[in-house]
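Q: How would the structure tokens look for this protein?
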Amino acid sequence: MNFLIRPSAEVAIKSKPVRRQQIRQLRQNVSKILRRVDDRIRVEGSWDRVDVIVPDELDSQPLVDRLACIPGISNFLEVRDYPLTTLDDVAERALAVWGEALAGKTFAVRGRRTGEHDFSSADLERLVGSVLLAQSGASGVRLKDPDEQVRIEVIHDRYHIVERRFEGLGGYPLGSVETAVSLISGGYDSSVSTYLTMRRGLRTHFLFFNLGGAAHEVGVKQVAHYLWSRYGSSHSVKFISVPFEDVVGEIMRSVDHRHMGVVLKRMMLKAAAAITQTGMAKAIVTGDAVAQVSSQTLANLNVVDRASEEVVLRPLITMDKVDIIRTAEQIGTESFSRNMPEYCGVISSRPVTRAKLHRVEAEEAKMDPSVLERAIESRVETPIQRILDSISTPEEVELVQTPGVDDVIIDVRHPNEEERAPLHLTNNEVLHIPFYELNQRVDELTADCRYLLYCDKGTMSRMHAGHLKASGVDNVMVYVPA
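A: Here is the predicted structure in token form.
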């Protein structure tokens, strides 16, 4: 059993030197991935094709699953290889392989030859076609749009009969284009945009801005590892985690609330640019889709982009949310993203939709620049192969529907949320500590009191309570009103 791989159409139309280089890269990628299944697998080919030679006893399905996820492949064929003797022998082999599958269907025989032979491709097609028509139970031959196509390729003194045809990802071979760093939050948009960048052949590092503590990072690491292991494991990349809670806190304290969202995006872009300038990448990838949220109007995107001189790629820029979610389902990230807590680190009241650069820069000037510098310097870069080894699960926390009289409630919501929907409790003290300040103020919590964290959806409070417990703060629970 062998596989014949056809490169994507865009590879096929390149000039011969470029095509040769990209096919070489594709062969290397296929070899790296398939040899992890069995090191006896051989990957060969010429400047316009890739051949995979597989030991007969191997199960083909694991190889099919991997080939279907390798960028740069248009389609691939599972073939059986035989020594060439006579055309009658070819016809008998074709009947053995295709006989049952053609019953009641129309078909066409597609022949192709390489080398010198005493018959033409047309001769091959006519003879094999006549035998299949007479003995397979096929309803007839149809050269245009048949139900099935029987592909036979003669290469010098051997021939292939195609048993199955599979579609590939398309795009370019990973590593044949330049390198990018993708901003990933684990949600639908950033996961799909990262996948599309990888599919386009860019070796893609994962850049995560941590707004929600270690629990958020765990989820994003899982998404990133899935994307890499399924679509990009031919190349090693890094998962870069930048602690951004202090940056969020500085924005909250210093920036006009209408400009907070745009400023946060610019801070992320500045940090990403500083990281790419170390030589790691040539472009920054984001999951922006025009007008999806207030920070993604054309005016705001223009202001955001002025924060960096690096190339910013936005694969989703014209996609609808429904299409993005559909793509997430197809590539396998939907279940991750659906369960990913949303960390709206900056919640603006009446956010600006037509930001002016000079106004945004004036707001940023109020911030302490050392906060962003420390965040960049504190980043942790981990080889993607090892990120799952570093994941620790936060402690389980108890949920409380009715607080005791002596319980102290900690409202971890953003101040704007508190203002719009105040938490009123008759018998309990309520502390207002936004989630981004919890780590800095944990020393204020006394050991002789039970604290209940609260937020509207319960997500943020559970995550932070779990990690406070994991760090040794045992008297923390979560308030979930009945």
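The mean pLDDT is 89.

The two ends are 62 Å apart (CA to CA).

Upvote if useful.
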